[in-house]
What does this fold into?
Amino acid sequence: MFLETLRAGLAVEFFMGMALYAAIYLSFVRLLRFPRNWLSVSLSPAFTTAVLMIITAVYVSVSHVGFDPFALVASVGIIGVLFCIIAAPAIAFQPALRWVEFMAKHGNYAGLYIILPAGFAAYAVPNVKLLGLLSAVAVIEVVWFIRHRPNNRRPLHPIVDYDLSVLKAQAGGDIKNFARRHGIDELVLSEGAFSWRGCSADTLPCPFNLYVNRLGLNTAPCCREHLAELCHSVAICLKDMDVTHWLEGGSLLGAVRERGQILAWEDDVDVSVVLDSGRTFDQLAAGISAYGEREGLHVDAFKNEGLISISFDRPQAWPFSWERNRMRGEIRLDLAVYEHALSFGEAVLERKSPKAAMSKTESGGFGLAREIVLPTSTIDFAGGNIACPNKPLEYLSALYGDIGEVVYTYVDEAAAETRCRPDTTEAAMGTR
Ligand SMILES: [Zn+2]
It folds into this structure.
């Protein structure tokens, strides 16, 4: 009888250890949606994760027989290292330190490496709660790896013309060696021609941060296609919902300066909307989420920041919808939400988050004169027609100053310098 009670008690402790790790893990991957979208982490979800971590550390290391310092060190140490690996792809969304980029690059399988020290800790520290926690670590990492291992069901896109001249410039002539050195697995050489194993909604995305920002390559042809598709799909949704919208930022710059093309080093699409006719942010977000469900797009809304991000990957069931934040790269459209406001006596459209050099408004937001934007006009972009500000040139100069001057925002300085030559040549030939 006593033995049975003891065994049942141990089983409860084991499963509690597992459940607590699963809770911290989910809370942490949910948190990664902020750095992924270039936002600072909100206080309350960060606080929840920290509290869960403290509860777990105390649960694992304190029992009726006393304090177990080894269990504390093993649990906190292993979770700490693993969470650095898990966070790297989301942090490397912005140009990041080399070691963060290194971990991001290996993020699909690096979590598996933690299983070895976890196994050692489970063997060396006889603590059933710790054993439960470490078992959950191992199960989650193995499942993540199996679900996200690279596959070869990728259509081939030829790399030619402008894309090829930029690739050649960055590779210093030796493309094969360049691809090997930087682990560009998507690049295929066959019969003297280069192709790109393209991403789709069912594969892992191409990691922009490495290819476009760090190595200074052109956005891959697959990603360009999907960015265009996503842009026009969202524009149709906004039209159907009767939401006033316009092309924004780098996308508008491409439409105006590059004659309707996506910037060669583009990593997202920017569209903006204004809340009018009494529509609230929540109503807008709900409408777009419903559209995302129907069309197979992932939607994430950030009310405090006035941002809705819409991604090309398929929406997944919970908890995988949170776990996707571990994924490296994504094809994304950022929908910035503006409101009508008065600033220093002038009618403006105002947003919560800063955008390039957009002026500060009286209330502390960011905005520009309403008459620059409304009523919206239309412009050719990425193979279709889309709404744009009434005065696109004035809009762009409010954001970027002189738009004739090419600025490689977010592209590594040396890589940007290298691509200057092919960019200038292609522009002169009219092929850019
Ligand atoms: Zn791609």
Residues 198-199, 206, 220, 222-223 surround zinc ion (CB under 6 Å). The radius of gyration is 25 Å. The mean pLDDT is 91. The longest strand covers residues 332-343.
